[in-house]
Amino acid sequence: MTTRIEKRFAALKDEGRAALVTFVMSGDPDYETSMAIIKALPQAGADVIELGMPFTDPMADGPAIQAAGVRALKAGQTLKKTLQMVREFRKGEAETPIVLMGYYNPIYIYGVDKFLVDAKEAGVDGLIVVDLPPEEDDELCLPALKAGLNFIRLATPTTDDKRLPAVLNNTSGFVYYVSITGITGSAAPDAAKVSAAVGRIKKHTKLPVAVGFGVKNAESARAIAAGADGVVVGSALIDALKKTLDANGKGGPATVEAVADLVTDIAKGVRAAGTVAAE
Amino acid sequence: MTVQQQPNSFRTGPDERGHFGIYGGRFVAETLMPLILDLEKAYNEAKADPAFQKEMNSYLTHYVGRPSPLYFAERLTKKFGGAKIYFKREDLNHTGAHKVNNVTGQIMLAQRMGKKRIIAETGAGMHGVATATLCAKFGLPCIVYMGAVDVERQQPNVLRMKMLGAEVRPVTSGSSTLKDAMNEALRDWVTNVADTFYCIGTVAGPHPYPAMVRDFQCIIGNETRAQMQELEGRLPDSLVACIGGGSNAMGLFHPFLDDRSVEIYGVEAAGHGIPSGQHAASVAGGRPGVLHGNRTYLLMDDDGQIIEAHSISAGLDYPGIGPEHAWLNDMGRVKFLSATDTEAVAAFQLCSQLEGIIPALEPAHALARVFDLAPKLPKDHLMVVNLSGRGDKDLASVQAWLEANKK
């Protein structure tokens, strides 16, 4: 079985360029605006959409994504609504893969089996669950794979060669390489080091490797894209979103435009990098 | 919750993956996974090393001041006319609470592992003070994350930490209390993986923390057993301790878990009362979920979002509980009760005035339940309450509460 994620990475490899993976928080700053942003992403140049599932206690996230989660929860976002957004997105878009990203507790409380059925039905293609390492694969990873969803794992600079096989085992779709040790939105990664790390991971897997954490603009995206199969951008988009909010935290058309404009710009950077890491 | 089939021993957990029944585990980001595996390995080696144990015991004797007395609270016993009430005087330890037992072990382990920088989270500040103290003694830089709300209400401990040379970082995310301090400490650890040791203050977090902190705290129960043997020639009949994360309780309870004649009570903070929704009683008002690296009872809404806890006691103001406590609750081995802010303050005053011991607000919750358990029990019933810390830090909070609640 081939998922949308696998198809998309394969197609881009043929095209000779890296994928642009965009992260936005579902329900930030509110359901309607967030929906409009997600619908605008493919047009702006996003190849894969990562949709955050807000959680009160995002232990691995920096201030930007923490605040995005708080805004979404305040506006009434729930996991049920996030799945509803995916359903609505899929009405007009059958190609762009959607990966849900977040923490385990809301899924656990929703009920793993029910969640997997509902996510698949809504049109979700993959999951990234930050606080489920391979040691906890029984919880969600194995059931998700069985349900036909990709389970995308994070590899980090602390994941050494000894540990990589354990991390890559049961990983599917792509590998998300976290380019720095730290929380989301921290210091910019060193492109040369990242490229070397991607090479190290590729010795252990045929899966595409997307790199995230610290990518802020077209220039850093271009630098990372030159050495990877995909570039993930998140905090920078959320920063752009936040700047358009009024004093009450309300967004509008300008919010959607600001995010779409930055994605367009970063997409140019990714495309300018051309192909390097594909082989 | 129905009581499940009883195991042969309650003291064999966790399994090799860190589970106590369905609780516990290692729910952490990949960045941290290699670190907690290293920690587990280093801890297992240290535990088996007689030299490590010997050195730790020496510090516990000469620096911490152990053993702490098992004290007969004669006037309280007389007042309630029932069970003989004993206090395990953890408030008399250096730094004023049980927290130092665990910190001594962890800081020694950090040094053994060659870690150069210590981080900790703190609620009431007792764990922060203990960590700052041991870091001063061993010359290690110490950063303590503390909710901004707690920085306000536990000023004396903030001043102590600063005097000891620690950096106190107020945390303003979320509810600005203990859970948020823990989030922030975890973020620091994810960022500074190479040189940093995270000294967790309670029997929670990813494996091996719940088991390791428990082991370091078991000295409380082990001493109690020997002391009661000496004083009364037998085991106690019941044990009572307050539970936030539950480290003082686990330290007292664990050595007695397989002595089935010993009744065990954990007391959670009921804040404004369980029905009000404003409380910190995870067992009474929560259900199993996953937070801070482990599965356990948590306060949360229908969407799995964590609800802010409330308690007058900063040390109990946490929306979860250690995973082994969650399991002991389901097994029916530990009975969970709760006490409100009002009851805790009344117990705080009564203990101060009848025994000349100002307890911390945390064990005042345990005392509140002792005061209604004891009168119903026979005079030869031996009840031990863990007086886990001293109350100097709480005088301003209690005073403010009394002013605000004047009839």
CATH class of chain A: Alpha Beta
Radius of gyration of chain A: 17 Å
Structural class of chain B: alpha/beta
Give the overall form of chain A: globular
Helical/strand content category of chain A = alpha/beta
Mean pLDDT of chain A: 94
Which sequence of strands runs across the widest sheet of chain B?
3-4-14-9-10-13
**Helical segment count of chain A:** 12
Mean pLDDT of chain B: 96
Our count of domains of chain A comes out at 1
CATH architecture assignment of the largest domain in chain B: 3-Layer(aba) Sandwich
CATH topology grouping of the largest domain in chain B: Rossmann fold
Helicity level of chain B, as a percent range? 40-55%
Task: Give a brief description.
Chain A is of the alpha/beta class and 279 residues long. Chain A is 47% helix and 13% strand.
Structure description:
The complex is a heterodimer of chains A (279) and B (407). Chain A is of the alpha/beta class and 279 residues long. Chain A contains 12 helices and 9 strands. Chain A is globular, with a radius of gyration of 17 Å. Chain B has 407 residues and is of the alpha/beta class. Chain B has 2 domains: 19-60 and 99-213, Rossmann fold; 67-96 and 218-404, Rossmann fold (3-Layer(aba) Sandwich). Chain B contains 16 helices and 14 strands. In chain B, the strands form 3 sheets. Chain B has a 6-stranded mixed sheet with strand order 3-4-14-9-10-13, sandwiched between helices. Chain B has a 4-stranded antiparallel sheet with strand order 1-2-12-11. Chain B is globular, with a radius of gyration of 19 Å. At the A-B interface, α3, α5 and β6 of A face β2, α1, α8 and β11 of B.
